[in-house]
Design goal:
The chain has about 325 residues and is an alpha/beta fold. The protein has 14 helices and ten strands. The protein has helices at about 10-25, 40-45, 55-65, 90, 95-100, 120-130, 135-160, 165-175, 200-205, 210-220, 230-240, 255-260, 275-295, 310-335; strands at about 5, 30, 70-75, 75-80, 110, 110-115, 190-195, 220-225, 265-275, 300-305. β9 (about 265-275), α13 and β10 form a beta-alpha-beta unit.
């Protein structure tokens, strides 16, 4: 059986159920790299120039972790998933960059995804990918339909049941994405609700963000994420702030930030990667919105490979302490 490797980085958290379904429907076995470790991050960082953003360094490390574990690597070049909305350059050249910096990696299955080129080009790209496994176009079509249905089910599951991608992948695949913890005998009600905004490859990689979600939940805070909102809520909030998205995945930052600043959260934390131009622009829009509304506290965290765990913990503690003081003042006013 052919083994297809999928790095647990970048777009893994958005599309893994879809990719897994597609290849399994074609008779392949899907192999996923292990969760990010310092060794994985260091190995990836050693292959690229220092100015490369943190998520790409982690991605290269995951590619190296899959070397020798699979027959092919699946690395798509996603240019656009919506009409007249464009992706960051790191996604456009990802297959070529991977070939250049990790020559020992298995052969790469690349596919150009660009909705702006029309559906015909997209379908041809899917059939070209599927022909690596079968010459039967009907089987490729069936695999593509099953994959799309898996993606819709995945997105619906997260928005309906307030799950993040890690929890949803566990439900769908019956795998362990996060180390299970023994629940307390007497669970403490949440002190407040904190919304996290940013790209999934930053929010859910526990090594990169120093277990941010775990820290919040352990301190008895309810955590909200962009995936818990419907597409309509994200698009509506994005339209209110900027009129319409320009960057692919902009709604994960601008849309989610705009929505949670106006309702549903006691505080909002934005996560972005150091040196990422689109992230800087989008997070600044949310920051300006928070400053105008002055109703919900907002903090941004910038992550890079030298970000210290102590620094993240200290800033988080100060932010949560501010929220608690604010809630106490509001309670006193109501009394």
């Amino acid at each position: 059986m052919i083994k297809v490797g999928i790095p647990r980085a970048l777009l893994y958290y958005q599309y893994y159920p879809m990719w897994k379904t597609f290849f399994e429907e074609l008779g392949a076995e899907v192999v996923v790299s292990p969760p990010t470790t310092q060794a994985i991050l260091s190995s990836g960082s050693s292959r690229v120039v220092a100015e490369t953003c943190l998520p790409v360094k982690a991605f290269c490390g995951h590619v190296l972790a899959l070397a020798g574990e699979c027959d092919y690597l699946f690395i798509p070049a996603i240019r656009s998933v919506k009409s007249r909305i464009y992706n960051c350059s790191k996604f456009l050249g990802l297959p070529d960059m991977t070939k250049a910096v990790t020559p020992e990696s298995p052969p790469i299955l690349d596919i150009d995804i660009d909705i702006n080129q029309g559906k015909r080009e997209l379908y041809q790209a899917i059939y070209k990918l599927g022909r690596r496994f079968t010459w039967n176009p009907l089987k490729v079509r069936q695999a593509a339909i099953a994959a799309w249905q898996a993606h819709l089910k995945y997105m619906q599951l997260m928005s309906d049941q307030d799950l993040n991608p890690l929890q949803a992948i566990e439900r769908i695949s019956n795998t362990t994405e996060v180390e299970p913890e023994t629940p307390p005998d007497n669970p403490t009600p949440p002190q407040a609700t904190i919304a996290l905004i940013g790209h999934p490859y930053l929010l859910y990689d526990e090594h990169i963000n120093h277990r941010l979600i775990h820290r919040l939940e352990k301190a008895h805070y309810k955590v909200l994420t962009p995936e818990m909102l419907t597409a309509e809520e994200l698009e509506s909030a994005t339209a209110r702030l900027v009129g319409g998205a320009y960057w692919t995945y902009e709604e994960e930052v601008v849309g989610a930030g705009g929505h949670y600043l106006e309702s549903g959260a006691d505080g909002v934390i934005g996560i972005m990667a150091f040196g990422c131009g689109p992230d800087s622009l989008m997070m600044d829009i949310v920051h300006r919105r928070a400053a105008r509304l002055r109703t919900t506290p907002f903090m941004s965290l910038t992550l890079e490979e030298h970000t210290a765990e102590a620094g993240v913990a200290t800033r988080l503690e100060a932010f949560l302490d501010m929220i608690q003081r604010r809630k106490r003042r509001q309670a006193e006013v109501c009394v």
